[in-house]
Each structure stands twice: as structure tokens, then as C-alpha cells.
Design goal:
The complex is a heterodimer of chains A (196) and B (383).
Chain A (H helix, E strand, L loop, with lengths): L1 H6 L2 H40 L8 E9 L10 E8 L5 E9 L5 E8 L4 E8 L2 E8 L10 E12 L3 E8 L1 E2 L2 E2 L1 E4 L4 E5 L2 E6 L1
Parallel strand pairs in A: 1-12
Antiparallel strand pairs in A: 1-2, 2-7, 3-6, 3-8, 3-11, 4-7, 5-6, 8-13, 9-10, 11-12
Chain B lengths: L1 H27 L10 E7 L2 E2 L6 E10 L3 E11 L5 E8 L3 E2 L10 H7 L1 E7 L6 E3 L5 E10 L5 E13 L5 E2 L3 E4 L2 E3 L20 E8 L14 E10 L4 E12 L4 E8 L6 E7 L6 E3 L20 E2 L3 E6 L18 H8 L7 H7 L9 H10 L8
Parallel strand pairs in B: 1-12, 2-13, 14-21
Antiparallel strand pairs in B: 1-3, 3-9, 4-7, 4-8, 4-10, 5-9, 6-7, 10-11, 10-13, 14-17, 15-16, 15-18, 16-17, 18-19, 18-20
Classes of the chains: A alpha+beta (196), B alpha+beta (383).
Chain lengths: 196, 383
């Protein structure tokens, strides 16, 4: 009898309401968090569908590699260009290399692939190579990390010298051109060459 | 007891609703409407232009949405009658040009060859560009040259705008409402045979004769036997470019190209003329009747020695070769130009010929291939 009376007292009712409200706040916060999580996912999807920025997204790579273990003044320094065309069949490519012309003389650039011919241009502290596929066969030219160009420089002084592939300089850019005449901007690098 | 349960359930549900709404309001602000079913008005300012022959005029493209929006990108084609107007320059005022997608001033030759400008711009900032419904915004500014004082209309086509909804999703289904630009009263875009020259109004009129590398006879079609060439007068006295003009030249049976250009210059000075064809490397010419003794294409000069008088001036440059190679008009011959020829060998369609048929014989072939390889040895525009 006493217990029944206790259950129906106004105080007990308030406790029940408060309990319901707390539980509702708990559930409501949970619902909000679930909805919010979905919204974040939506935003992530939207971000991936927003117009792809076309300013120099890089694919593949063209990197410099030092092939000389010991470099001495007046002995040629042999560098090479390593290329990965990210699965694309390449028709031609340009590479802009910056170096110190006071301490290094550019001697020559040769292609390791007989289908490609190298045209080199020196200006100020830059060497630009335009490498074109002169062979007219339908043979594919997909670069997969191989050494494609040999570069020879003649050091004139001792020291540590930077060779850097520039993504662009004035009108010139480092790029691949594919068989569909699409321009592909590769990742590039910088190396230091020590001359004793 | 039932009443109590109903009460508690009602309080429970209302509280959940209040909590969810409240948290949303706190963290994301008031709900905003999406742009679904909205209109983007696309027009030119000014909407009409009255232009004399060979005069330049500039119009802006105004984009005005029906509701405020955050713009991420836009694309449209501006179509013009290439026999009546020549595209001269473009400036992107909202965002930047989308590289390799939108035309820039560097694409003058190809735009004028095809008769439409592909405008593609994007805002790559974190916030995007807020485009207001009240005034809209001028997204692009274009300068044309009227080739004659005749009526013509400039239109839009293939337009899309990309904006971001309040919930972060991309919206690109605007209903585009375009308004044309009427030039000299307006008319229809009807491509017609190319004119033989340009009516001129400057104080100096140049009657030009040119010879282009690889072209020894009149090309087989009207389209191929006419091209727009840029002429820039370098004032040797002031050391600056005095004026420039884009003029149409046409070929005779022997492959000598003639055209007229007018420029406004101080006739007491001496000049050099910089000539750049649509697929060519820019050549600096310092004499009125130059010849080359060192070999074809090897004419070089330093100081401008051309004197001009008010009215007609005959400049016969047919004694020197204007070398080909800069097919994309970037100012240098590089792997892109080479790729344009090599990747299109054997093709004969109009669009490809306009880009890669260097000798204008109606086919991209090994002769064009040889010419582009030779051009790699020249490489850059003369300035």
C-alpha cells in the first residue's frame, strides 16, 4: 500500500520525466552525431567531385640521378634522367634543368632509347631538353622508372653543386606529351653533386 | 497509467527533436535553401556595340544568378563570325583560367581559326567566389577587332556553372539564360568565304607580302589559303612596341601571301616589324624588302630600318621565309608542338588541319613532321 502511494507521488513523476528528458538528450545527441557524420561524408564526396584543379597536378616522374661515385675537377660528371610516365605512351617530353654554369660546363645529352632524339638548349643557368620520338613505328613508349637520358657535365671547380629539375621557367615547362597530345606534369627532384 | 506513458513518450520525442535541431543550429547555422531549379543569366555588357572597321572593342560577360551562390567554376563558348570579328585578348576576372581547358590570349590564332572562344575558369580558393543575385559579377573581359563595319551577333553556347550548396555538395544544374551581343545592329553567325584583306583606318597602311615555310603553292581549299597573322611594329627610336594588328592574309597561286594591316605610328621614326603566323615562330624584319643570302629561313636582323609614310606602304617580305613550328602559339617550339604533328599523322579533318597541317596541303603528313623537327632547332620567337 505504501509502495503504491510512493509510485504515484508528484516527486516520483518528476523523476520519471527528468529521466526521460536525459535519455532523450542522450538519444538526440546520438542522432545528431550520426547525421553529422553522414554530412561529413557528403562533404568529402563533394570535395572529390568539385572541379579538379588543373594547375599542374603531377603524374609520374622525371628525376635526376648521379651516376658518378667520385667526381673530380676536369673529369666528366655523368648524370641521368629517370622517367616514369605513369602508364602513358609518350611521344615527346621537355625537361628544364637548373645548374651552376660557372662551375659546370654542359657537354652533351644522349638518349638511351633509339626512338627518341634529344634537342638541348642552354640559356643562363638553365639547360632545356626537348626529347622527341622521331621513329614513326607504332611501338609504345611507356617509361617505368628506367634511365632514359644520359647527361654529361664538366666540373670546373671543387665544391657541392645543385642540379634541379624545374617544373617551369618562363615559357618552358617540364612535361610529358602523350600519344593523345595530353600534357602530363611529372614529379621532379633536386640532387647535389660533390666535386673533389 | 496510459496517459503517463503517452506524456513521457511525447516529452521524449520533443526533447530529441529540440536537441538535434539545437545542435545543428549551433554547429551548422540556420538551414539554407539549395540552388535547385535556379537560373544563371549570362549576358554581355554592354549588350550592343557599334564599331568601325578595324577598331577594337571590349565586352564583359556578366553572370547573374537568381539566388546568391558560391561559385567554383564556369565554362561557356562565345561564338563569333570569324569573317567579321577577330578575337584579340581575354582576361579572366573571376578565378583563373583552367589550364589546358580555357582559351587565353595566347590562343589568338586557333580561336580565330575556329570562330569561338572556349572560356573555362575556376576559383581554387578555399572559400570560392560569392556570386550575388543582386548584381552578379563580370567573370571575363574579351576584346575583339571588327574586321569590317558590318552587323553581326556574338552568342553563348555549352554553358555550365559549378557552385557549392550550403551542405557542401556540388551544384551544376543551373538553367542558363543567355543574351546575345549585337554588333553594329546584330545579325546571324554565317561563316562565309574568308575576306581577301582587312579594311583599314590607321594613319599607316601596310600592304604586305609574306612567304611561309613549306608552302610553295596555293593551298587546296579557301580555309587553308587564308590565315590571320599578327604584326607588331617595334619602334627603333623609342625602343618599344608602337602598335600591333591582326590581319588576314591570303595566298596566290605561287604561295605568296598578301594582306593589309593598318597601324597608328609616328612616321618620323624607324621601325622593325615582328610577324607571327598562326603556326609560326615570330620573325623580326628590319627592312622593307628583305632577302636572305645565308640560306632559306636564316634572315636575321637587329636594328629596325623600316621607314613608313602616312597612307600606303609596301612591305615585300616574300624574299624571306617565315619559319613554322609554334603550333600552340606558346612562344616556343617544344614537345607539345611536336606531339601535335606526330600524333595526328595521316589526319585530314578540319580541326586537326587548323592545328597541325603546317604546309597547308590538306593532310598532316611526313612533310609537316620534317618541318616540326626542323623547328626544334630554331625554338623561340624573335623579339
Amino acid at each position: 500500500m505504501n509502495n503504491k502511494n510512493m509510485e504515484n507521488t508528484p516527486n516520483n513523476k518528476i523523476y520519471v520525466y527528468i529521466l526521460a528528458i536525459f535519455f532523450a538528450v542522450f538519444v538526440g545527441s546520438g542522432v545528431f552525431l550520426v547525421m553529422n557524420n553522414k554530412k561529413i561524408n557528403n562533404k568529402e564526396q563533394a570535395a572529390t567531385t568539385v572541379i579538379t584543379p588543373t594547375s599542374m597536378p603531377t603524374k609520374g616522374l622525371i628525376n635526376l640521378k648521379n651516376n658518378s661515385t667520385v667526381n673530380k675537377v676536369n673529369s666528366p660528371v655523368n648524370l641521368s634522367l629517370v622517367a616514369d610516365s605513369n602508364g602513358e605512351n609518350i611521344t615527346a617530353f621537355d625537361v628544364v634543368v637548373s645548374y651552376d654554369p660557372v662551375s659546370m660546363d654542359f657537354v652533351k645529352a644522349d638518349s638511351n632509347n633509339s626512338s627518341f632524339k634529344v634537342y638541348s638548349y642552354k640559356k643562363d643557368n638553365r639547360l632545356t631538353l626537348t626529347v622527341v620520338k622521331t621513329g614513326l613505328s607504332g611501338e609504345q613508349s611507356v617509361f617505368k622508372g628506367e634511365e632514359i637520358i644520359k647527361l654529361v657535365f664538366q666540373p670546373k671547380a671543387k665544391g657541392s653543386f645543385s642540379f634541379k629539375i624545374l617544373t617551369s621557367f618562363e615559357k618552358e615547362t617540364t612535361k610529358f606529351v602523350s600519344e593523345k597530345t595530353e600534357v602530363i606534369y611529372p614529379g621532379v627532384n633536386e640532387i647535389m653533386v660533390k666535386v673533389n | 497509467m496510459k496517459k503517463e506513458v503517452l506524456k513521457i513518450a511525447t516529452i521524449f520525442l520533443i526533447t530529441i527533436g529540440v536537441v538535434v535541431w539545437g545542435l545543428n543550429y549551433i554547429f551548422f547555422g540556420a538551414p539554407k535553401s539549395k540552388a535547385t531549379g535556379e537560373t544563371m543569366n549570362l549576358s554581355f555588357t554592354p549588350a550592343t556595340a557599334t564599331v568601325a572597321a578595324n577598331a577594337d572593342f571590349t565586352v564583359n560577360i556578366l553572370a547573374k544568378p537568381s539566388i546568391n551562390t558560391v561559385l567554383r567554376g564556369y565554362t561557356t563558348h562565345v561564338n563569333f563570325d570569324k569573317t567579321k570579328l577577330a578575337f584579340k585578348s581575354i582576361q579572366y576576372k573571376v578565378g583563373v583560367v583552367s589550364a589546358d581547358l580555357g582559351n587565353t590570349t595566347a590562343h589568338v590564332a586557333s580561336v580565330n581559326a575556329q570562330g569561338f572562344i572556349t572560356i573555362t575558369g575556376e576559383d581554387t580558393t578555399a572559400t570560392g567566389y560569392t556570386l550575388g543575385a543582386a548584381n552578379g559579377a563580370e567573370i571575363v573581359s574579351i576584346t575583339f577587332t571588327a574586321l569590317a563595319a558590318t552587323a553581326t551577333t556574338v552568342t553563348f553556347s555549352d554553358s555550365s556553372f559549378y557552385s557549392v550548396n550550403s551542405d557542401g555538395t556540388l551544384f551544376d544544374t543551373w538553367t542558363i539564360a543567355p543574351t546575345n551581343l549585337d554588333v553594329n545592329g546584330g545579325g546571324t553567325i554565317t561563316p562565309s568565304p574568308t575576306p581577301t584583306g582587312v579594311v583599314t583606318t590607321g594613319n599607316v597602311k601596310l600592304n604586305l607580302k609574306l612567304k611561309f615555310q613549306g608552302i610553295g603553292a596555293k593551298p587546296p581549299t579557301d580555309a587553308l589559303s587564308s590565315m590571320l597573322v599578327k604584326f607588331t611594329l617595334y619602334d627603333q627610336t623609342t625602343g618599344q612596341n608602337a602598335d600591333y594588328d591582326i590581319a588576314r592574309v591570303t595566298s596566290n597561286e605561287k604561295g605568296i601571301w598578301s594582306g593589309m594591316s593598318d597601324l597608328t605610328v609616328n612616321t618620323s621614326h624607324k621601325f622593325a616589324l615582328l610577324v607571327k603566323g598562326p603556326q609560326h615562330i615570330q620573325k623580326k624584319v628590319c627592312d622593307s624588302t628583305p632577302t636572305e643570302t645565308a640560306g632559306a629561313g636564316l634572315y636575321r636582323c637587329s636594328a629596325g630600318n623600316i621607314t613608313l609614310v602616312a597612307g600606303d606602304n609596301n612591305l615585300d617580305f616574300s624574299g624571306i621565309l617565315l619559319l613554322a613550328g609554334d603550333l600552340d602559339q606558346s612562344g616556343i617550339v617544344d614537345s607539345v608542338d611536336f606531339g601535335m604533328v606526330r600524333n595526328n599523322l595521316g589526319k585530314t579533318d578540319v580541326a586537326t588541319l587548323a592545328q597541325a597541317d603546317i604546309n597547308r596541303d590538306g593532310k598532316v603528313d611526313t612533310q609537316d613532321f620534317s618541318l616540326i623537327i626542323a623547328a626544334l632547332g630554331i625554338r623561340t620567337d624573335e623579339q
